[in-house]
Amino acid sequence: MRSPLINVMVKAATKAARRLRRDFGEVENLQVSRKGPADFVSQSDLKAEEIIRQELSVARPEFAFLMEESAGGVTKPGDEPTWVVDPLDGTANFLHGLPHFAVSLALVERGEVTAGVVYDPIKEELFVAERGKGAYLNDRRLRVSGRKRLDESLVATGIPFKGVRDHGLFLAELEAVMAETAGVRRWGVASLDLAYVAAGRYDGYWERDLAAWDWAAGVLIVREAGGYVSQMDGRTFALDGPSILAANPHLHRDLQKLIGRKKSRA
Ligand code: IPD
Ligand code: CA
Ligand code: CA
Ligand code: CA
């Protein structure tokens, strides 16, 4: 049975998701603006954020917010219980009619993620986790994959954009992972990449330079499914970055050795 807290989060996520699903059907009519190079925001991102803020602030008026579209330069939750929210993770997919995006909500208390929800409105897949209580996909308990061999593993990543000019470091990592694993995937939705590691669909995932709202919910979901999460060089993961490596416990160290010490080719 879900706790009252998770119910509050699921209600907010599904309400925002309903709006995203509706907008996705008429995406060509949406207003879109640019926040920076290759960084778009649509009416739908903003509307979903507003819906979530409203739902969560009624349910828990004393909690703070760190939300992508209204973060105003803040990158880290403070000491008070804080909702860390990505109202639409995968805006580029959404705007191109690719049916792969998600709503991501996390509760962070004293620096620790204590609850997380990632909801894919198109596939109707709801990933939830609460600290110490396991991770679930639509009420089915999740467990990371048991694969032990790199050459049988499927690993996800994100390709740097947003004005990054030096792709050399990423290309060196990619080359190393390509050479040793069974394949690399890049779907452009960090919260779902993490949820898929938790579900055993991917054996690992790495990316750098994202924000707390991309990672927070997914990190807890992976850990509660028995996976390991760190920075790419093996140090303790931090919500404000700079990098992430999530994997099943058998492959985490091997992947870290592969990508943690790469130098830029540029
Ligand atoms: C993006 C996604 C994607 C990652 C990008 C993010 P947004 O978030 O999480 O996986 O590779 O860097 O910006 O902007 O669509 O919420
Ligand atoms: Ca964005
Ligand atoms: Ca995001
Ligand atoms: Ca977003």
UniProtKB/TrEMBL annotation:
Keywords: Hydrolase, Magnesium, Metal-binding. Its cofactor is Mg(2+). PROSITE patterns: IMP_1, IMP_2. InterPro entries: IMPase, Inositol_monoP_metal-BS, Inositol_monophosphatase-like, Inositol_monophosphatase_CS, Inositol_monophosphatase_SuhB. It catalyses: a myo-inositol phosphate + H2O = myo-inositol + phosphate. Mg(2+) binds at residues 68, 86, 88-89, 214. The keyword Transferase does not apply. It holds the Pfam family Inositol_P. CDD domains: IMPase. This is Inositol-1-monophosphatase.
